[in-house]
Amino acid sequence: MIEDKNPQRTALENLGEFGLIKHLTQHFELNHESSLKGIGDDAAVLDFKNKKAIVSTDMLVEGVHFDLSYMPLKHLGYKSVIVNLSDIYAMNATATQVTVSIAVSNRFPLEALEEFYEGVAMACKMYNVDLVGGDTTSSAKGMIISITAIGVAEEADIVYRCDAKPNDLLVVTGDLGGAYLGLQVLDREKEVFKVNPNNQPDLEPYSYIVERQLKPEARKDIVELLEKLEVKPTSMIDISDGLSSEILHLCNQSEVGCNLFEDKIPLDPTVISASEEFKMDSTMIALSGGEDYELLFTIDQKDFDKIKGNPNLTVIGHIAPEEEGVHLITRANTKIALTAQGWNSFTS
Ligand code: ADP
Ligand code: MG
């Protein structure tokens, strides 16, 4: 499909490695004072003065984490950066730099990489981060992407997964389940396309959830909002795998239990209608879906008034002593133990 979309195909070997790197990165500027040296030397040089540096890396493998038959390369470039920035925001830090490393097989022309870097550039601009390095190499088959995101924070502002306390409130941003259902829609259209390539899918009714899958956003705005509200969460994590596995991570690391209320889980109307269409339970999808990149955090009860009524934030439960365990209180008011049903168990 990449071949079909790019009438012009310049083979990568025509440029050579240095020519390629230069070509792909020439339009990136450095905007942060902390970026002393970016691309071009053996290593980048950063200066965070008396603040702490926050570093996170993720790897994305074609066929495992993304499918290029419905993921346009520009979106992939954007999303690859976003998923890494999300980890920085989950520490309550400001993302400042990224490095982007790619391995591609000879099936990828220069134009495909240009498209990928357009997405990278767009994310860097939107989130104000500097591209300061990376690596470029070949792979025997498919595309592999590794991104490192770097951020900065005052030591006192950093939020870990391990400091939630009994009676803290459990809060989630945005709404859940959209990205997983967007993938179901795209998967279904791919199957239809295989049978009838002339069939033009109408994705319009699903635009919200398809966008949640193809062009997710990281919650930089929430880190800024919390600062403005003068709320420092007691613990925080980003929702990459699904609400239930993230709650279990917070609880295990903080050595606490939790009660999560099914009727409080925020769902977009499109998520409710699409889950009915796919004959899936919307709560299950929110719990186990994944790739929503919302933030999940706990706050002291005394901070409740500061966040109350904010449309971006929903209180979905509260932290309990460890002995009480981690439970979902259903709409029918039954209490069931939460289990880690991450992304994998749901897709296989
Ligand atoms: P080395 O041989 O020391 O690994 P490279 O030739 O791989 O150096 O890289 C030269 C410069 O280009 C370095 O600053 C490196 O960080 C940067 N760079 C290499 N590949 C990429 C890429 N895909 N995206 C951004 N910067 C890159
Ligand atoms: Mg290198």
TrEMBL record:
Substrate binds at residues 65, 291, 343. Residues 40-153 form the PurM-like N-terminal domain. One of its GO terms (biological process) is thiamine biosynthetic process. Mg(2+) 3 binds at residues 42, 87, 238. ATP binds at residues 117, 134-135, 161, 240. Pathway: Cofactor biosynthesis; thiamine diphosphate biosynthesis; thiamine diphosphate from thiamine phosphate: step 1/1. GO terms for molecular function: ATP binding; magnesium ion binding; thiamine-phosphate kinase activity. Catalyzes the ATP-dependent phosphorylation of thiamine-monophosphate (TMP) to form thiamine-pyrophosphate (TPP), the active form of vitamin B1. Belongs to the thiamine-monophosphate kinase family. This is Thiamine-monophosphate kinase. It comes from Flagellimonas pacifica.
